[in-house]
Structure of Citrate lyase alpha chain:
Amino acid sequence: MNKLTNACGRILPTEISGYGRVTPYTTLFSDAPALTRTMPAKSIFRPGISKLRASIQEAIQSSNLQDGMTISFHHHLRGGDFVPALVMQEIAKLGIKNLRLAVSSFFTDKNETLLTYFKDGTISALETSGIRGMIGKEVSKHGFLSNPIIFRTHGGRARAIEYGQSNIDVAFISAPICDEMGNMSGRFGKNAFGAMGYPVADAHYAKTVIAITDNLVPYPLSGFISINQTLVDYVVVVDAIGDPNLIATGATAMTKNPNDLVLARRVTEVLIASGLVKEGFSFQAGAGGASLAVLSYLGEYMKEHGITGSFASGGITSQLVDALEAGLFKTLLDTQSFDAVAARSLAKNPANHLEMSASMYANPHNKGCVAHQLDMMMLGATEIDVNFNINSLTDSLGYIMGALGGAPDTAAGAKMTVAIAPSIRKRIPIIVESVTTICTPGESVDVVVTDRGVAVNPRRQDLKEKFLEAGIALKEIHQLKAEIEQLTGKPDRPQFSDRIVGIVEYRDGSVLDLIYQLKS
Amino acid sequence: MNKLTNACGRILPTEISGYGRVTPYTTLFSDAPALTRTMPAKSIFRPGISKLRASIQEAIQSSNLQDGMTISFHHHLRGGDFVPALVMQEIAKLGIKNLRLAVSSFFTDKNETLLTYFKDGTISALETSGIRGMIGKEVSKHGFLSNPIIFRTHGGRARAIEYGQSNIDVAFISAPICDEMGNMSGRFGKNAFGAMGYPVADAHYAKTVIAITDNLVPYPLSGFISINQTLVDYVVVVDAIGDPNLIATGATAMTKNPNDLVLARRVTEVLIASGLVKEGFSFQAGAGGASLAVLSYLGEYMKEHGITGSFASGGITSQLVDALEAGLFKTLLDTQSFDAVAARSLAKNPANHLEMSASMYANPHNKGCVAHQLDMMMLGATEIDVNFNINSLTDSLGYIMGALGGAPDTAAGAKMTVAIAPSIRKRIPIIVESVTTICTPGESVDVVVTDRGVAVNPRRQDLKEKFLEAGIALKEIHQLKAEIEQLTGKPDRPQFSDRIVGIVEYRDGSVLDLIYQLKS
């Protein structure tokens, strides 16, 4: 088999069975070939025809789902999602096999019931942003899927769907509120989850779109319509699309962990020293404890200096809603509301808490995504290497347990990207020679902040000078790694077989890295 | 040349020079061949690149506009629109010739300056919903365009753009409020026009999209975004995109004309007698005097009987906003706000005054448009014939002076379509043997209401029975025609040459009728 090496030094085959030809990753913004976006053939929908189907099974039958086709789900119902299990159960009953599952991501709890369908051949291929829980562990250990899993970023998924690299036959969209023509939104209903950014591409490009709701309202749906009737084929009413208690447990909690607070204080110093925290700046951070603490410290600084940010983006938390309502940011741009406060805010703050599709958020190949407008973004990591590559998908034992999310997208787009991680996690050093899996290429990571020091990517001498000027102590990343290893020792590396179980695509569709099955 | 006859009895050539193969109109909902929707190739937009261009000329140059390409405008700025003239002036200066102009429609005043560019060959082809003013007169008289004008309904235009029958190279979109990435809306700014339903298809499918604004605001635009940054290539700031006094002169005025009031009273009786005016019914009427009076009378009936309508659609007037705010209708679905009150209401009533694209409004070939959900719609006419065909495009002298608008779309979709017209206009009878130009096929017109009587389409025996039961006096359409002709005499018919100057497409792309140049 021919091999090639990508710009991160990863050796890749030129072709992978169950995937096709490999385009190696070259650089953050490469001149990809021009592809045309093709949407499915038109429908002729006469007046008086009903889209309502009496059951999920009837809707599946109407969609003419066949062996080998691709279906999709989105993960806005998070840990409380009933829909994939409800649908897969009916598909299995119909005896349909060998499906490709193209989900926006996977959450732990409810989706574990899907393991059965992976094992019995109902599902034989998977495209996702990440996998948490048992499915990831099982794939890493036993590699039971016949095709390697394709991991895509949130922006990369929208791009792949728009340009026909991910061809969805039937999209199942969970709708907390929906009318009989399929106008829907995530804003209202007992299972309201807020922004509905991920399935927008599915709705536009899937051949058949099935809305599944537990809250059918009279036509036309009032208030904001996230996905409209022109895109939906069938509507099914079920008792419950989810468990509201597991979608989001109130507000995301701020950390009280003293290590996180030290880390957050240091990150805030770095942000300020960069000179980017000024009137009209834009910001993205995750929902991790340290990120939320950064927002809190940064908010204090902004108030003190009378600075108003233009927007904060990505997954939106109650802390960002507080910041919006306190006037610290002018606008929130939301693909996924991380908690109940954020979900409610979309309806409460319609003028400045805006929903956006994953394509608007992060697709690198449209006419300009929000991620490319960011001044600064923060991301977490399971591992960081001396080339500033970030792993967020596999753990130190080599198991798949995380996600790409929007981090590679926003890291590429932001003027400054800061990776935040504790130096040691469960006695394992976080800074390594080479990460197990490259998820965000080091080319897009500017600063690494740990509790044992701050390292700046050598590409960013400009930032280095600013930080030194501000009195921030810096370390070379190799020095940081050595110091940490003096405490932990060199960790054992996981041992892999040569069977490819996962392919990590960069947001533009090139291949960043491969994930192999663990040696038994 | 081979000829064929369509279902309305019009004789058509099989092929028309400058147009191509003719698909004859067959019926309201024909099984058209499945066409794939193709959007232009992807763009690679790197962070830090500006979309701002210093002038319209620079934006045109950036778009690489060439001889023979297709450009588009939308008509939401109505009589106060500066943009087409500003753009055409620059195109002419650059010496670009032979363009195809694909506009959503034409209004009178400002667009007459475009006549020059039609005459000097800068523009050689036109696609539009209608033409008012001098351009129509000149085309009918002198046929100065080398290609026949294609007339499309609002829904038909969205369909033609989506399915690649109208391929726009460069779309110019007038934005009353816009940020530097091209997020825009019609809701705010000195030239706010309200809903922005027409250029949505242009924004999605044109190869290059240029936003022209007189109100650039910091990124990201707050409030509702009608067309977002993922679709826009360039942004140009000009002094003024329009004259607010000519966009909409306050509120549309209710008629005091006693004939109109009699007509409106009769229409209201017909609507009520149909049994369709009940809880949750939906409604569309134009902005003509009689239509507004119908809404007023109907509102009284609804209040009296405690009836709340579900939605009113189409162009939205201040009278419909009043009805919404009085709780008579639950929702307004708006492609174009007809007056300043309606334009302001979108921001004032965000939960139940919703903007929709022309495709969502009326495209027959998506997965279900709003037009197909209507219970009743009213339309005006310049002529009505004994087959219930409606003319709204040419006058009795044969001059092009009107538009198709959304009438053929909503007439097809509504459960009951009522044509309203005075029996005589300027001594000319309105009911004729055969309309000069078929715009809305009689198959979709159920009732004709004139000041000299009501006629029901023989296809609708069900309605006939209901009206008789309610004591409404009915006349056969031939009888109505004869009575009117007794007063007016048989009118002279305009004399046409055999040169085709216009093609009237039905909403599905088939050909309903042809417009010929007048004999000189």
